[in-house]
Design goal:
The complex is a heterodimer of chains A (about 270) and B (about 375). By secondary structure, chain A is mainly alpha-helical. Chain A has a domain of about 170 residues: MetI-like (MetI-like fold). Chain A is globular, with a radius of gyration of 23 Å. With about 375 residues, chain B is of the alpha+beta class. Chain B folds into 2 domains: about 220 residues, Rossmann fold; about 150 residues, Nucleic acid-binding proteins (OB fold (Dihydrolipoamide Acetyltransferase, E2P)). Chain B is about 25% helix and about 35% strand. Chain B contains 8 helices and 23 strands. In chain B, the strands form 5 sheets. Chain B has a 6-stranded mixed beta sheet with strand order 6-7-8-3-9-10, sandwiched between helices. In chain B, α2 crosses α3 and α3 packs across α4. Chain B starts with a strand and ends with a strand. The chains are: A mainly alpha (about 270), B alpha+beta (about 375).
Chain lengths: ~270, ~375
């Protein structure tokens, strides 16, 4: 696309301003994580020196590694569970004809309109009655069935030509073999997208882990961070921000890795 | 090699109206059988019923000696080539070819050998490691063909496999498919809407129109003796000329709606009971008049002329519509000219006006080459 110079100038100025506005909280958190208490009180923007005291402190005060591991297990668990459940459901909605399929699908999709918080209380009772408080399954299982994920995958599966399904039938492939050997490999892009989405939302989840964890055994990192704030009378913000930065890193890593995969998948079909 | 038999086969989607009805045909082992018809005539549905991808709602389908109505596609011992090829986009050419063998648990060494043999037969050896999207249309088509051949199934179904290729490649693949079919002796059931493909490839052709069989026969038989006006206009290019005509038995005359009189050979109309018939005559039998040949000649006004180099195709007013004639060579004719046209009346077909039945066959036109040269 070609643009005249003044237009370009305006464009990039606007882009830069929005980028700064958007990124400011994270940059500021990053800078605070190197500040000492007094520095912070003076309302400085840049720390006097970059030292890792706050980072050492945060690992000292909290079993942060433990929390990170828990978060990782829970996020990965939800991600895998969602992929399995959603892809199988989407497969049924696309490739297996049954009476009332569209009705069931729209009913399923309509659950997207019910906010998650509204189902929280019944979910909590179920988990409590199953004695799953403070367990990994209690943290992960309620999130496996995801209407959005099923919808996303169904849309992709629908783009698979029906001749491919028929060719597989003629070749003697059963329904599950077709799913595993044709549908999944062909839909890699959507699966990666859904996987990244599932992982990140679970990693950032706050309310549900707060409800179902009562001790440190399976507590996730977001709840752990909150503890820093309330432990002392005056919160040591430098330490909190150090914790925040540590928590952000895996998210960023995943985003970069996922983005590369995504771009690869998206451009694969476009260029001959 | 197996035969395929359809007995009273019909298909309906809503259990009320049949989209295909009364199909009775036996496809012999090793035969190249072409299903041809205009779009929406049910030819693809019929093929898919044979493949088992579409339910048969009435009648019996036999593959070999076994009734196959309820068999799943994989148990019917057949392979299929789809119009859009249906190659697996995530697999290489080689994996695409061996995919079916892999599913059937063919030993790995055997699989490899069969894939290589097939690839060589179709000239795909250099492309085995490529993905389908890195191939041209013709190459993809050959991969689809290879996938069908490698399975060594006795029956092969093809659903308009050449419709996505350009004209030159299509002509090439036509002869290639025919050659491979003869070499392997596969029973081939081939669906097309292209009458040229049907004429050049088929041992026998079935012409379908709105779900009903119009005619089954060898290409030449169908060309010479079309069973009804639909077949007459569907096969042949330009199509056969048709016009309603009054029969004058005593004078052995056919009179078209605009008064044009065509003298038929003496006695050829004697057995015709109808007063009005449909006259059908192919464009090549409307000829430039030659003195002494004795063919009936009539004058007509030319409406359009196409000079193609080796032949001249022009249309003229006849009866209520227009007829087309095809003359060899280049002719200086202008639209608006009134020219004399000779009719080879021996080659004319007559159809009943009510039910379209063929009531008078054209004379046979086949020639043989003898040592002395071509004999008429």
């Amino acid at each position: 696309m070609t643009m005249s110079l003044p237009k370009k100038l305006i464009f990039y100025t606007l882009l830069t301003i929005s980028a700064i506005v958007l990124f400011f909280p994270i940059v500021y958190a990053f800078l605070i994580s190197f500040m000492t208490g007094p520095e912070l009180m003076q309302g400085k923007f840049l720390p006097e020196s970059f030292h890792l005291d706050n980072y050492i402190k945060v690992f000292d005060r909290l079993p942060l590694l433990n929390y990170l591991l828990n978060s990782f297990i829970v996020s990965a668990g939800v991600m895998l569970g969602q992929l399995a459940v959603c892809s199988l459901a989407a497969y049924a909605f696309v490739f297996i004809p049954f009476k009332g399929r569209d009705f069931v699908f729209f009913l399923f999709i309509s659950t997207m309109m019910i906010p998650w918080e509204a189902t929280m209380i019944p979910n909590f009772f179920i988990i409590q009655n199953l004695n799953w408080l403070n367990t990994y399954q209690g943290l992960t299982l309620p999130f496996f069935a995801l209407a959005f994920g099923t919808f996303l995958l169904r849309q992709h599966f629908k783009t698979i030509p029906k001749e491919l399904h028929e060719a597989a039938q003629v070749a003697g492939l059963g329904p599950f073999a077709f799913f595993r050997r044709v549908v999944l490999p062909v839909s890699k892009t959507s699966l990666v997208t859904l996987g990244a989405y599932g992982f990140l939302t679970t990693w950032n989840m706050y309310l549900w882990p707060l409800l179902v964890t009562t001790n440190d055994s399976v507590r996730t990192v977001q709840i752990g961070l909150k503890q820093l704030q309330s432990q002392e009378v005056a919160t040591d913000w430098g330490v909190v921000m150090a914790g925040v930065i540590v928590v952000i890193i895996p998210t960023l890593l995943l985003l970069f890795l996922g983005q590369k995969q995504l771009q690869k998948g998206l451009t694969q079909g476009a260029l001959k | 090699m197996k035969k395929v038999e359809l007995i009273d086969v019909s298909k309906s989607y809503d259990r009320q109206k049949d989209v295909i009805s009364n199909i009775n045909v036996t496809i012999e082992p090793g035969e190249f059988f072409v299903l041809v018809g205009p779009s929406g005539c049910g030819k693809s549905t019929m093929l898919r019923m044979i493949a088992g991808l579409e339910e048969i709602t009435g009648g019996t389908l036999k593959i070999g000696e076994k009734t196959a109505n309820r068999l799943p596609p994989s148990k019917r011992d057949l392979s299929m080539v789809f119009q859009n090829y249906a190659l697996y986009p995530h697999l290489t050419v080689e994996e695409n070819i061996t995919f079916g063998l892999d599913v059937k648990k063919v030993p790995k060494a055997d699989r490899k050998k069969r894939a290589l043999d097939t690839a060589e037969m179709l000239g795909l050896t250099d492309y085995l490691k490529r993905k389908p999207r890195e191939l041209s249309g013709g190459q993809r088509q050959r991969v689809a063909l290879a996938r069908a051949i490698v399975s060594e199934a006795p029956i092969c179904l093809m659903d308009e496999p050449l419709s996505n290729l350009d004209a030159k490649l299509r002509a090439h693949m036509r002869s290639e498919i025919r050659r491979i079919q003869k070499r392997l002796g596969i029973t081939m059931i081939y669906v097309t809407h292209d009458q040229v493909e049907a004429m050049t490839m088929g041992d026998r052709i079935m012409i379908l129109h709105s779900g009903k069989i119009q005619q089954i026969g060898s290409p030449i038989e169908i060309y010479n003796h079309p069973a009804n006006p639909f077949v007459a206009t569907f096969i042949g290019s330009p199509p056969m000329n048709l016009a309603a005509a009054d029969v004058r038995k005593e004078a052995s005359l056919l009179v078209l709606a605009n008064g044009t009189e065509i003298v038929m050979p003496k006695g050829s109309l004697d057995e015709i009971a109808e007063e009005r018939v449909t006259l059908g005559i192919r464009p090549e039998f409307l000829m430039p008049p030659v003195t002494g040949e004795g063919l009936p000649v009539f004058d007509a006004e030319v409406t359009n002329v196409e000079v193609l180099g080796h032949e001249t195709v022009f249309s003229f007013v006849a009866g209520e519509g227009e007829w087309t004639a095809k003359w060899n060579g280049q002719w200086q004719i202008q639209p608006g000219d009134r020219i004399p046209i000779a009719v080879d009346t021996g080659s004319a077909c007559l159809f009943s006006l009510e039910d379209g039945r063929l009531i008078r066959k054209a004379a046979d036109r086949q020639r043989t080459v003898t040592k002395e040269g071509a004999a008429l």
